[in-house]
Design brief:
This protein is mainly alpha-helical.
Length: 137
C-alpha cells in the first residue's frame, strides 16, 4: 500500500465501510452528523472532507482514524478539496511503524486541539438565526 495509486480512495473506503452488515449511508449520516447528501457526493468521488468529519466518521464506524485519514488524503479532485500535503505527511508518520509512540501521541494531541479550534471557529462563523421583533407602536 505504499504506492499512492494502489491506496484505497475516500469513496472506496466509504463504500466498503457502509457495505458491511448493519451499515448504510443513512445510518452513517445519522450517527456521524455528516449530511447524507455530503456522504453520497463523497461516495461519487467529488468534494473533499475535512479532518473533523473524517475522524467523526471513523469513530462512528469503529475504525482507526488513520485508515480513514489515509483514504481521505487519497481523494481525487482539486488541491483544495484534498487534504493538505502537511496533513498527508502527518498521516504517513502516524502509519509508519518505525515512528515512536510518543511522537504519534504528540501528533494526535496536536490534531485534536487544532480540530477543536477549527470546530469552534466554524460554529462562530455560522451563528444562529436572528429574530427581529417589530417595535411596539
Amino acid at each position: 500500500m505504499s504506492d499512492g495509486a494502489s491506496r484505497e480512495s475516500w469513496a472506496d473506503y466509504l463504500r466498503r465501510m457502509t457495505a458491511r452488515p448493519g451499515w448504510s449511508v443513512a445510518r452513517l449520516a445519522r450517527e456521524s452528523g455528516v449530511h447524507r447528501s455530503t456522504l453520497f457526493r463523497w461516495i461519487a468521488g467529488s468534494g473533499g472532507a475535512n479532518v473533523t468529519s473524517v475522524r467523526a466518521i471513523a469513530k462512528v464506524l469503529g475504525d482507526d482514524p488513520s485508515n480513514a485519514l489515509r483514504a481521505a488524503g487519497n481523494m481525487p479532485g482539486e488541491a483544495e478539496q484534498a487534504l493538505h500535503p502537511d496533513l498527508q505527511l502527518l498521516q504517513r508518520r502516524l502509519m509508519d511503524p518505525a515512528v515512536p509512540a510518543a511522537e504519534k501521541a504528540a501528533i494526535e494531541t496536536a490534531l485534536r486541539y487544532l480540530a477543536e479550534v477549527a470546530e469552534k471557529a466554524e460554529r462562530a462563523e455560522r451563528p444562529g438565526r436572528t429574530v427581529r421583533r417589530r417595535a411596539a407602536g
